[in-house]
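Trying the structure run again after the queue cleared.
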Amino acid sequence: KDVLRDLLPKSPVYSKDIFVLFNYQNKIVRLIVKFIKYKNNSSLRKRVAGFLYEEIVDISSEIALFEGAPPVLVPMPMSKKEKRSRGFNQCEELVREIQKLSGDNIEVSYNTLKKIKETERQTKLSREERVENVKESMTAAPQQRGSRPNTVIVLDDVYTTGASLAEARRALLAASYKRVIGLFIAH
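Done. Tokens:
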């Protein structure tokens, strides 16, 4: 049993198709996210990927049972400009760690969801500005007719207003996926 996971406060978010591990109000949780997001800290990334993997296994087994196929895991995309500036996409890095943990047990795609429009950083924007900022900023590769899976789990670091997830959901549903689940480290 991992003591760190038990010590960190659980997220207060309980919503259909949104899964959040920890409460961002906690100083340690904020530091963990910051070190993964801006410093690409590999030991914290591996640790958190383990927690996310456990959550994905739970979510996936239920989906596979009821929908006949497990979901595909995709990282929240980042604009080319921002990725160049930062040097990495922390969500892609987390998905890579999860992929290592899962062997071939989880289907992963790095090109299903793409950011097609440069957007402002969301951190300083109001809820309404966030929604407007990300509007039509993503696209999803069309799902092949009759192919599986029909469900996508979008992995992101922090859930604030849900604007980015809503935009990802819009793009994925337009590409014929049936269900989009958001998985986050913190809210």
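Residues 61 and 90 are 26 Å apart (CA to CA). Worth checking whether this holds up in the mutant runs.
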